[in-house]
Amino acid sequence: MVNVYPPSEDTYLLMRAATSEARPDDSVIEIGCGSGVISASLIGRVRSILATDINPHAVKAAASLGLPAVRADLFHGIRSRFDLILFNPPYLPEESELDPDLTEDHWLSAALNGGADGREVIARFLKGVSDVMSPRARILLLISSLTGLEEVMELARASGFTTEIVARERYFFEELYVLKLRSSALR
Ligand SMILES: C[S@@+](CC[C@H](N)C(=O)[O-])C[C@H]1O[C@@H](n2cnc3c(N)ncnc32)[C@H](O)[C@@H]1O
After folding, report:
1. Span 98-138, pLDDT tens digits
2. Closest CA to 5 of 74, 89, 67
3. Whose CA is nearest to atom 13 of ligand 1?
4. N or C: which end of the chain has fewer CB within 10 A?
């Protein structure tokens, strides 16, 4: 399906981190589920999982894998709280604006375009995510060296989270990281 982000190296890195982090009693939400393969890999391993995406084609793809799936801009409209929050966000710095017509290009670009510094969607996520976090919540956030590792960790700390790199993988032109964030108020 070309209007949904195809599972790629970043997908599988986050999937492995999620599999090792998830506990049987966790309620899990995946923001930006794309094809849904990460959420699908957790079926039967966790108490519940909800897949969400801003892209309606992604919501359909996730539902076709047997997942409860809803369309949402980040967690807007989501009223529950979760123990594990997964997000492989649009993380690449892009000069170009999103194509305003809802074409295939729009949805593929929305999967990767993190705004001028690559951190625009991540910053919005960090600002509001505590509204959907249970007291024991952990967040797994995938980013690239192109997003700016130090900058994202600083943004997370300034938003009230502790940060830990739990997975990393180097590629030809970038390094991918999975950050585990927890509310620093819990320490
Ligand atoms: C890099 S892709 C990752 C897709 C999938 N999780 C994976 O790892 O293959 C980013 C996903 O985030 C979604 N997305 C972008 N902006 C979003 C937003 N504001 N709210 C929810 N999802 C968003 C995109 O539609 C896309 O499916």
Report:
1. 666 666 678 888 898 999 999 999 999 999 999 999 999 99
2. 89
3. 32
4. C
Report how far ligand 1's centroid is from the alpha carbon of 187 (Å): 30
Amino acid at 8: S
Task: Return the CATH number at 174.
Answer: 3.40.50.150
pTM of the model: 0.95
Q: What are phi and psi of 52, to 5 degrees?
A: -135, 155
Using a 6 Å CB cutoff, which residues line ligand 1? Answer: 5, 7, 10-11, 14, 31-35, 38, 53-55, 58, 73-74, 88-90, 110-112, 121
Q: Residue 62 domain-assigned?
A: yes
Q: Could you list the residue range(s) of the whole structural domain that residue 27 is in?
A: 9-186
